[in-house]
Amino acid sequence: MHRKLYLMILTAILPCLVFAVTLTVKQDDSGDYTSIQAALGAANPGDTVLVHPGRYYENLTINRNNISLMSLEGTTGDPAYIESTIIDGGHAGRCILLQRDNHQVHIRGFTITNGFTTGGAGGIGLAVNTASILTNLNIHNNSANTGGGLNIGAATVSLSGVHIDSNYALSMGGGLYAASGEGYTNNITFDPTNRCSIYNNRSGAGQDIYIQNATNDLYMPLDTFSIAEPSNYYATYLSVLPVANNFQINFDILHAHHQEIDSDVYISTSGNDNNDGLSPANALKTIHEAIYRVAADSLNQKTVHILPGEYSRTDNDQVFPIAMKSWVIVQGSGMDTTTVIGEPHPEMGDNSWVLVFSAIREEAIWLSDLSITSRNVPLYSNAIDGTKLRLTMNFKNLRIYNMGAHDNYTNTYRIVYLSANSKRESIWNNVTIENIAPDDVHLIQMLPGILDNGEITGMKGKFSNCTFRNASSTYTSTSVMGMPLISITGDKRLEFENCVFENLSVEDEDANVIQIGGIQFPQQQNHFSFNNCLFNKISSHDNMILVVSSNNPRLDFTNCTFADNQGDAYTLMVNGEVNIVNCIFDNDTPYQIKVNPMDGNPSEHTNISIDHSLVKDGVAGILPFPVPGNTINFLPTSISGDPLFAGGNDIHNPFYYSLSALSPCIDSGTRDTTGLNLPPYDLAVNCRIWNDRIDMGCYEYGSEPWVSNDDPVAPELKQLALFQNYPNPFNPTTSIRYSIEETGPVSLDIYNIKGQLVKTLYHGNAEIGSHTAIWNGLDNSGNACSSGVYFYRLKTPKTSLVRKMLMLK
Prior knowledge:
The protein is mostly beta strands. Among the domains are: 20-256; 720-807, Immunoglobulin-like, CATH 2.60.40. 5% of the residues lie in helices and 42% in strands. The chain starts with a helix and ends with a strand.
């Protein structure tokens, strides 16, 4: 009876019993399988797939719980099996993908290489809600958009003896990328005894590590990391937004893979990344590699010198994006001689975008003296991306041009996309963004940033001698407002001086062309000022130029010209304490100026004062918002009518909006310029105040070229005269006249602002009398010189004279 019952019970439960087995994989047909994937497909929970040595060209997917995948290292403990048992992705996909919702998976004892994907994880991908153990793996030479070596997506994983090196990610996390999401968080642990190593990886951001949406500190005991004291450049760790970024990686590093160079480095088109880069003769080849090697030192900054030439993937194997590093100066040889041409990743193909310079999560960057453009764009192109919480930027002598999107790309993209930081001043000096293809494009989007303490921040600083022109957004929508072409969030103080905004348009009926806003919290009065700025040929259906902020900001417009702007509503909308002095408004809009209603907030007031300015229709050209506390004071010193610009047949002439001899704006500016913070020169780099009186608008009539008081001009002798070049500024040819009253040896030389000889125009004996030399903008080697300030010196055996001139292209 008992025996019969036992047999009945055993018969009932036998189908439910699962016995763990080992499935062997051998390439010589002597095992259970020759393919790892075939073994994984046949495995049941609790089974082990044991792989014998060989190179397996496979792209594996694990979709079972409680599976062990290991080489003979797992059964013998012999580390030689790690190098001899290789899972090779063949650049056809990820090497290993653990699909979501699978747990108790153990991967051990392999070399993982040559994986590739346009998404996340080139080497190993751990999907959402998975739990795994990775042991004694070498993960190297894999590529992906994020997480070149290892991509962790809201998963639980334990790493022991894992070496992640020499991987590449186009976007973030060259070695390791992790992000929480879908209601799950990452739980990552590193073995403090059998330590892991992460080093020598490359990416657009977070060279070795990029982890976002973190909810706690991460303890990371490592044997080897790229450097001993990692910065955000190597390891980016972001908290869940919008809370303060209070969490961090607590590193415990035994060895550094390399020592950063405490010196300037050089790059040339004929360089080699095997060189040391310490001199032009031993220059490196790729800009990305040069920045990677240089030490970041806020007290003793180093410079990456980019020698003349064109830098692209096609021409000289450049790696994009070029990851910027805080406190490292990246400097070309001139806007006209150094060009960085962004191109797509050759393997990403039609699925990638083009980003030239990346500064994600960097604190302070320097970029100067070069041009940025793109070609062979598969989706869209960006020149600079510095988003993710905070950034202080220092841009000088930059030209960004001819960037855009593919004809089939219809989504929004930005040419310069930044999050600003007001802890330090940002400086844009002589930056030009122009000739951007008509699309749903934004030239500049400057977002608020978030400091580590959670404080919202924006840009504090100055735009000087900048030009934004020739761009159009073709985006339209009946339900969603289009984005501005230029959108900047200012913080505390923001200045625009000698800037040009020209030929900009948006097609969406609700979109702004230019929008300058301010940080609202903490409560503060922002101060935005515009001096000697030109706004012309800007068009939209409604909103055109907005300069607005909460908390009753102070807005100053001094010697600005708003001309030939077209729209169905108004040219400029403002609120707060607004001072308009010495300005010209001559636009084809129903109203020249509009008061921002600020949603009728009774604590917000607008008081506009218009002094010594020309407004096309006088006070009738101003649209008020008539609520208590708002005032418009159109002072008797201001006028209406036609400014009578010099004009001419060429509307593209940069001086088209200068004043004609009959203009009522000549000598009609305020007599007292105290407190206006005017620059010493107008938009044409002529003296800002002339004939003891200032004009309205951004050009001074009849003024001579400005020369600063600290110009190294020697006292003139009666027998020697050196005259100001004409024209000045010039592009690229100018004439220099000088006078000699004693026959003898003379030299006329041109120097750059560093005091380096650029061009010898004359060297020899000169006869008594007047002479003229022509400079065509070329140096002694026949190369075109870049825009900027130059000095020309006339020298005789007795003395010399020096003057300044400005080339603008």
